[in-house]
Amino acid sequence: MKRTLIAIALTFLAGNAFAAHGKLNVVTTTTDLASIAREIGGDFVDVTAVARGYQDPHFVEPKPSFLLLLKSADLLAVIGLDLEIGWLPPLIDQSRNGKIRLGSPGYLDVSRGVEILDRPSGAVNRSMGDVHPMGNPHYWLDPANAVRIGIQVERKLAELQPANAADFARRLNDFKQRMNEADQRWRAMLAPYKGAKIVTYHNSWPNFMRRYGLNVVDYVEPKPGVPPSPSHLFQLIQKIKDQKVKVIVMEPYFDHKTPQSVAERTGAKLIVLYPSVGGAKSGTDDYFQLFDTNIANLIEALQ
Ligand SMILES: [Zn+2]
To answer: Left (φ > 0), alpha (ψ -120 to 50) or beta: where does 223 sit?
Structure first.
């Protein structure tokens, strides 16, 4: 009995000593999660994102390098709501890393602690190609949800590396404060455009547009993940004309030909907004810059 206790104590001390000095290896599926994890983890973590910010996060082509990342991860943070369902589960399996399996302490699905829009009211229905069957997975595009993600990351890092818990808590507080200040600035900048009507290519922006009082009236895609049909485009063009929609927003990973032709036929302006950190070559290096750049682009188009 005594010997077991000593063994447990030694293991515990060894674990803590390692935690205090070794860096936690954090892997996130997206660059936005990586940016927030860096804010909270600081120098105590190494953070790498699997997907690039200029890729459609629904459809990431797996590469051998992804497996190497996952093999050495202490923590895997995911967006969830089926966003990564097309590419992540086989990678987790093949990594054979027990720490990051679903249900393990090193697996963190941050969708559990954020506000989700477009939740299905009835049974989940994946037919018809809708890639948002569990609700809208682009929830990170709202500073309030960025803070909620930060809170979950802070709790998880403190659990995995208790020796640095006070530092994570301090960094979270600092992040909250800077996020709040930036959000107030962004609100003030967009206030003159309250209620402006917008069409977006994919349904990536409901959290963002609601936060800043903008009104998405339709999408180029008839359903998330489904390419536009001629009949849908015909109706869309009518709607843009009838409702005098000024701006069509597209994500950087779609072909611009279709939205460009809709823009030409209606007089609306086509612009690119970046849904993720690293979506553009410059000006999207972290979560704050991403919003600065998107909001500047949006205001230029709405003026
Ligand atoms: Zn989507």
So the answer is: beta
